[in-house]
Amino acid sequence: MKQMDTKTLANYINGEWMEAEHTAPVINPATGEEIAKVPLSSEQHVEKAVQAAKKAQKEWALVPAPQRAEVLYRTGTLLREQKERLARLLTMENGKVLEEARGEVQEAIDMAFYMAGEGRRLFGQTTPSELKDKFAMSVRVPVGVIGIITPWNFPIAIASWKSFPAIVAGNAVVWKPATETPMMAYELTKILEEAGLPKGVMNLVFGSGSTVGDAMVHHPNIQVISFTGSNEIGRNIAAECGRQLKKVSLEMGGKNAVIVMDDADLELAADGIIWSAYGTSGQRCTACSRVIVHEKVKAELEARLLAKIKHLTVGNGLNEEVKVGPIINKRGIEKIKRYIEIGVEEGARLLTGGYELIEGDLKKGNYFAPTLFTDVKGTMRIAQEEIFGPVVSLIPVKSFQEAIEVNNCVEFGLSSSIFTQDVKKVFRAQRDLDTGIVYVNAGTTGAEIHLPFGGTKGTGNGHRDSGIQALDVFTEWRAVYVDYSGKLQRAQIDVE
Amino acid sequence: MKQMDTKTLANYINGEWMEAEHTAPVINPATGEEIAKVPLSSEQHVEKAVQAAKKAQKEWALVPAPQRAEVLYRTGTLLREQKERLARLLTMENGKVLEEARGEVQEAIDMAFYMAGEGRRLFGQTTPSELKDKFAMSVRVPVGVIGIITPWNFPIAIASWKSFPAIVAGNAVVWKPATETPMMAYELTKILEEAGLPKGVMNLVFGSGSTVGDAMVHHPNIQVISFTGSNEIGRNIAAECGRQLKKVSLEMGGKNAVIVMDDADLELAADGIIWSAYGTSGQRCTACSRVIVHEKVKAELEARLLAKIKHLTVGNGLNEEVKVGPIINKRGIEKIKRYIEIGVEEGARLLTGGYELIEGDLKKGNYFAPTLFTDVKGTMRIAQEEIFGPVVSLIPVKSFQEAIEVNNCVEFGLSSSIFTQDVKKVFRAQRDLDTGIVYVNAGTTGAEIHLPFGGTKGTGNGHRDSGIQALDVFTEWRAVYVDYSGKLQRAQIDVE
Amino acid sequence: MKQMDTKTLANYINGEWMEAEHTAPVINPATGEEIAKVPLSSEQHVEKAVQAAKKAQKEWALVPAPQRAEVLYRTGTLLREQKERLARLLTMENGKVLEEARGEVQEAIDMAFYMAGEGRRLFGQTTPSELKDKFAMSVRVPVGVIGIITPWNFPIAIASWKSFPAIVAGNAVVWKPATETPMMAYELTKILEEAGLPKGVMNLVFGSGSTVGDAMVHHPNIQVISFTGSNEIGRNIAAECGRQLKKVSLEMGGKNAVIVMDDADLELAADGIIWSAYGTSGQRCTACSRVIVHEKVKAELEARLLAKIKHLTVGNGLNEEVKVGPIINKRGIEKIKRYIEIGVEEGARLLTGGYELIEGDLKKGNYFAPTLFTDVKGTMRIAQEEIFGPVVSLIPVKSFQEAIEVNNCVEFGLSSSIFTQDVKKVFRAQRDLDTGIVYVNAGTTGAEIHLPFGGTKGTGNGHRDSGIQALDVFTEWRAVYVDYSGKLQRAQIDVE
Amino acid sequence: MKQMDTKTLANYINGEWMEAEHTAPVINPATGEEIAKVPLSSEQHVEKAVQAAKKAQKEWALVPAPQRAEVLYRTGTLLREQKERLARLLTMENGKVLEEARGEVQEAIDMAFYMAGEGRRLFGQTTPSELKDKFAMSVRVPVGVIGIITPWNFPIAIASWKSFPAIVAGNAVVWKPATETPMMAYELTKILEEAGLPKGVMNLVFGSGSTVGDAMVHHPNIQVISFTGSNEIGRNIAAECGRQLKKVSLEMGGKNAVIVMDDADLELAADGIIWSAYGTSGQRCTACSRVIVHEKVKAELEARLLAKIKHLTVGNGLNEEVKVGPIINKRGIEKIKRYIEIGVEEGARLLTGGYELIEGDLKKGNYFAPTLFTDVKGTMRIAQEEIFGPVVSLIPVKSFQEAIEVNNCVEFGLSSSIFTQDVKKVFRAQRDLDTGIVYVNAGTTGAEIHLPFGGTKGTGNGHRDSGIQALDVFTEWRAVYVDYSGKLQRAQIDVE
Fold it and tell me: PROSITE patterns per the record (chains A, B, C, D) (predicted)?
């Protein structure tokens, strides 16, 4: 990947690639090396981007949706052709292991084709009027300019969840990706350009949340903010958007639990936990950070987890043997360390891990040992707050009912999982677990792109990414009534 | 209606009717008479109501939805049986003429049956997983406790739009109706009780926005606020809800236009304008307050409107001959008067009306003469701001394209209408008019309950009342995946 | 029920009740008493009915669907008010026990409200055109005159499944009920009349299949035949309808199995089998007539079934203690007897029952002892052919896979059921059991009205009763394209 | 296209290309040259194909639908890459002009991507049960082996409408294309093979309807017949399928009218008529063969049509200037000639055309002059029967109402069109024209692939090709109920 070394990335505004005055280095979290420079844009860049988007959107909305969709089909094809290259770049900027990086690119590919399929759907409804000689229907119409703010942990997948439905529905986009992972944003935008997206429909503005993000949230010509990130920032965005009567879609934190019942296939449960807890080093919003285990099988589950953790190779994700990559940056490491201390102070028992890895080459990057606490109580801070690292808290319970209650006693509601053989428990769980996603006999990660993704309670504000539900925040419903009676007819009144 | 004189209304909390310490008089706007006393509740009432709702909701969510729906079917039946009585009460507290009051009660009846029909629908989706031996689906689940804040202008219809879908979906409700029109809230709650709604599922708390409304918006155990009212208050609610990551649905102001093209059936257009502009004395969010008229037919349209206005009897809505009832209160009158002055200052030409009516018995109530300005420019304040009274601004335009632009140049986006014979203009209009509702050859009012109701831009935040879309803010999507392969399968990765 | 004794029923054609020249006695299968006389109509009656329907349908289609639905809401309300009376009449003509008769009437009530809900739905789709300035949508339109032919075993429920969706969608109906159970048809038609259905929309013609049914199937002005009954007759109807290019919906036989796995809750399984096998004396198309049991639990299941069968009181269904009522007529008894002989000859082991009950008062009616064969092979005739009586064949199997295969090896595909605790088996079963309905941990009966009802393979021809899918055969899709570009635009060609 | 000369085509059965003993020549209708040899297969080929399909289908159904869809995405991509080559081949075997041939290939491309999009949709429904602790849903399941019989006039488009939804839904296919146009079938099958469709999922058997078609219709292991072709054959197929309780979807003839009202844009109407009447030489099921014209504009419309007809170059469709290609074969020519005679005898006035074209090179092919009758009565045979050639009958009418009646007075119900400026007439027309497709201000052809395609009355039997409605005949609904209460619960009975 020589050629990418310290490449200076550029904003993409109104179909032109424009470098910014200021930049920040992009660091490979696995090696500490600078791999690119990312623009630190100003409010002026946002202003230009919004004006370009506003103008382009009017034309784009008039392009028939099936033709808009052709751009996404081409995007999907280009992404597929470049999957391996993109995956490697993704690993370099984000740290996740190659296998996962490939999976993430695949997610963007799948979403491109899926949302392209909406070009010939975008279904509204025809429905009978209550009055004679009157016609009624609803249609989905674009909203206008969409501000998209995406995090570093799924730099291309989340971008695809948000931008593809926005685009196919006839909106224009101003996109601020995380400064940690700008290369995926750069590459995806390049591909959209190559796929023939008209200028101004997608505008990419790199920079900080406090400058670029803030300018977007405040801009009166951005009608929707679609944000994935921390609860704290999401809260501020939602407050400001509320003040402006701007639509806002939020996907934020999780404190996702795997429940292991006493009748579970423990080997399968352990595999599911390992994958969903330590994959991406726990830096997924759906990562498993709690295991709620029936006391009868607690000891055996612990043993199996410890055995599996021992075999988790930590290192540079470009190395195919590596199963756990680095933490995104030193701040991340520090946060995790603090929570280890908190956990210990709270009386949780540390079974393994709990420390930064600094041996050999690892010290150049940001690595943390896969960590397992046990004898955790559901109310402890390590069982309540999002750590965003490879840290799992085992919480023993005495019953199915208690497991459900512990699962539900956090402020988040993104994902949950249950391992059991019992069909009755399965159906109670899918009814009673209060998260937006429920897995049965699988870990807490692994959503498919055609189902709604998102969470309840503090995780979001009711909107969903992915699935056809993703269209909801990017379109408005328009009800259309045509009275062809030639006379004044009043609903509810002139009905026999 | 002797027996209702100065009846003291009560809150309904956890299935009990409880009077409050403080009350305010409810005044019939047509006569100035006190017709009831409405409780002015405190934060403690809200607290009790929320706790009751929280508790009741857990049980209610477990009642099968088809059985929850039975309560709404009974509600619809009871409303129908009492339609005439309710309509008269509604006229007394709100002022709208009897015919419209009957229409409004009918709307609640229709909504009861419609939402009851969701008991056996509430459709989610089954859809194939991308992995073998894996099952995927989405289900709608209730959100929890819904805070409903409703205005005085449709005291029972809007309440039905919000509470019926909330209830059938398995939520509990805390409802603050406008203090001007508490009797409809009282009656509807009585009927829900009689229909067998379990205690705590609907809780009615009368009082001011600053005390009761505020406490609801801030209460951590209310998960959704569904609000219809002014933009200013909606803005504050949305900001606060944003801060708390609370879901919020807003329906606010409109500045709705009827477009009259040069090929229009002018008699029909005039009828449509009269009905949608002066019905309910213009106090509808969808009321026509602008007429965008092609210059070729401007003179004739003015003449027809003036002729029709002359025949509009203004007075007490209980009198069947009356076509235009009172304004809700003196503050309303004052606001309208101010806008008359503003219009005149801006150079609009007053064709008729423009003054309060105070002759004879009218002086006891709050009446304003149906008012028509002409030669208005689209940018004038009277063509931009919501007046909420029987005041219409005629704006002449030279072309279809200009008409669309003038329609779209306001901050609101609720309703619009076009009168034309030309099918091409009809289909362009339904595409280009940027409101949430578009009427063709009908005025700006008269939505049917089974289509989505709500507006774009400053009118709302993307949610819709009525229609099946109303379910969106009262439910969360839950994606459920069941892996029955017995092994770890990873989406996007273990495909093929 | 004195007043019903030997009541002479009449046809209902074009809103008039008309007696026929010839009649046949209606016999209470529990007592052998004549309880009514049913008209044996001629082709002329059918002709009149079709002409009335054809004429009425044109007007009915123009009544707004929400207003058509009001008739069904009233029908549902009237059915509910008369539920107990109707249930008793149903027991008298059909024999099913009172509890089941009430359930059946409830089904018609539920269907009335459910299909009434379609009045404000009947959703078609709006969807973007691939060309600029072109609009596209689909709407559901009525087909015309529907011929409905219903069986005696669910005389009011099946009638409601077919007629209510047909009516709400804007069709007119000619209905030939089974001559064995005309009273439910008479009562339902009376109620539709009372509910305000315009004359000619529902036309009731009693009589034989060979005369009335045949005339309907051949009539060129009947556009759809919706038939529930035997495979032999269904086959002939479908052939004739095919020849005429008439739409036809068939629901026919079943040979439904309950699968009991070795991990099943055997008490629950036994309850489920007893209810679905011996309820309605096995005269349900979804009745369980096969039990596919894992050999490990075969003995215990047999023991539990025998114990429960012992407590099944057989007799007149009006007696609340009775659990199993009579067989519809002597022909039914004879058919069952033949199959008992066949089973014995094939080597099946008769565990209990196998004979007609003729002690005391039972001899006046048509009663057959609840019968259980065991050691049945899946290929035996008693395990392949529909007996339509209280006869169950236990088929032992060695594995889940074998159970699925045995279930699927019959020519029918209506209903199946599995009892197991194992979530993996549950999800495999719902995927692999090749019937139109699959139950888990419940018997083979008990469909709910809002889900599609019907079977695969020899049970039907792809259509479904109940659920919104019921609308499919009673409506045609109309695709509507409006080109408002003012120029010739060719799809697929003038794109891009 | 040298290499295609007299190429001998092969069947494709179980993934192998197999030549047949007997063949027939494939003649280019534009030149009379033999361009290929098509197998004339026997019942044994059908038998092998069905057995292969039956076996393959079991595996294919277990491939996750999103992966099945990948085959269609690749198919779409390959079709696009080969669009020009395929279009030229299509013109050679079918005769339609190149521009239309490209459009037809585009239709198959569009359908590939559209139906691929169903891989992640194929939506069924989750819906609440009426009983506690019970879960209910519906899923779409494949039917099994589908027999597809396609005509020569849209050899690749219609094949794509039928095979792509069948395949994505998990069925296997046995396909008999028309012997006149086997090359498109050959090419499409090649592409499906190249796209990775597993062997046995698509089986191509060339041959006659009387041998191959008949064997398919009678084969007990084919569960569905999807047929497009003549009414006579469709009728026989439907009768036989009925006898066997086989599902059958029919798309047959049309007698499609363009209505031209007195306010129509006559130039546009004439363009629409020319395109939909003489395109493909009128050999489209949706071709306009009637023009119902308001008497006020009859003369002018005739003049415009005559002027345009004069400029229609007839000839070999490979020549880009040619607008009207040949008739498929001499039988077609003879049939058209007969109808010209009939028309003249009936008293219709021949304005232009009416004869075979045999000058110069044209005599080698089968050409017929674009023909226009006027003063036709709606009841004449030329206005009632399908001619399938470039013959149009002008029928003057006095009113909108009469136009609707004339449109509806034929036995077919495929497509209709109205030219008018008047929005009222537009909406009445879309309600009252009794065809499955209605166009406004466009001719009778030009359906888009994502809307339901098909007709009412004698045109079909209620099923639809294309659109998501196409899935209906290729899937069965399965209702699944899971009772997790642990006790016997009876729907309709144990409620409340």
Answer: ALDEHYDE_DEHYDR_CYS (PS00070), ALDEHYDE_DEHYDR_GLU (PS00687)
How many Cβ atoms are within 10 Å of B262's Cβ, its own excluded?
Answer: 15
Per-residue DSSP letters for A249-302? EEE----EEEEE-TTS-HHHHHHHHHHHHHGGGG-STT-EEEEEEEHHHHHHHH
Residue B336's nearest CA partner among B392, B374, B286 is B392
List of chain D residues whose C-beta atoms are within 8 Å of the C-beta of residue B130: 64, 66-67, 120
Query: Which residues between 304 and 333 in chain A have a beta carbon less than 8 angstroms from any beta carbon of chain D?
Result: none
d(CA A269, CA A417): 10
Task: Chain B: list its partners (3+ Cβ pairs within 8 Å).
Answer: A, C, D
Q: Which residues of D touch B123 (CB under 8 A)?
A: 125-127
**Interface-testing mutation among A74, A121, A123, with chain C (most C C-beta atoms within 10 A):** A123
| D340-358 mean pLDDT | 98
Residue A478 at interface with chain C, using a CB cutoff of 8 Å: no
D174 Cβ neighbours under 8 A, 6+ residues apart: D46, D49, D50, D53, D145, D146, D147, D148, D203, D205, D216, D222
Contact A123 C122 (CB under 8 A): no
Q: Same CATH topology for C2-252+460-479 and C256-440?
A: no
CATH of domain C256-440: 3.40.309.10
Q: Residue A428: which of D423, D427, D484 has the nearest Cβ?
A: D484
Find the mean pLDDT for residues A179-204.
98
Chain B CB contacts of A224 below 8 Å: 462
Segments making up each domain of chain D, as ranges: 2-252+460-479, 256-440
A481 phi/psi in degrees, rounded to 5 = -120, 130
Instruction: Report pLDDT for B7.
Output: 87
Nearest residue of D to residue C438 by CA position? D480
Strands C124-128 and C34-40: unpaired
Close Cβ partners of D170 (under 8 Å, ≥ 6 residues apart): D57, D60, D61, D63, D65, D68, D141, D142
**Which residue has tokens 């089904």?**
C107
> Chain D contacts of C129, Cβ < 8 Å?
448
Tokens encoding B99? 């015919």
Structural tokens at position D395? 């029928």
Q: Which of C187, C251, C302, C386 is catalytic?
A: C251
Exposure letters D318-334 (e unless 16+ CB within 10 A, then b):
beeebbbbbbbbeebbe
Q: Are D272 and D443 in contact (CB under 8 A)?
A: yes
Q: How confident is the model over B244-278, as pLDDT tens digits?
A: 999 999 999 999 999 999 999 999 999 999 999 99
Residue range D264-314, pLDDT digits in tens:
999 999 999 999 999 999 999 999 999 999 999 999 999 999 999 999 999
Among candidates B372, B417, B374, which has minimal Cα distance to B260?
A: B417
To the query of whether residue C99 is one of the catalytic residues in this protein, the response is no
Question: Position of tokens 């059921």?
Answer: C417
Q: Which of residues 216-275 of A touch C (CB under 8 A)?
A: none
| CB contact C441 to A (< 8 Å) | yes
Q: Are C459 and C437 in contact (CB under 8 A)?
A: no
C489 close to A (CB below 8 A): no
DSSP for residue B463: -
Considering the segment(s) C2-252+460-479 as one domain, its CATH architecture is: 3-Layer(aba) Sandwich (3.40)
Q: Which of D63, D131, D426 sits opposite B64 (nearest CB)?
A: D131
CB pairs under 8 A between B and C: 59
Residues of chain C with pLDDT under 50: 1-4
Integer distance in angstroms from the first to the last C-alpha of chain A?
75
ipTM of the complex: 0.97
The parts of chain B modelled with pLDDT lower than 50 are: 1-4
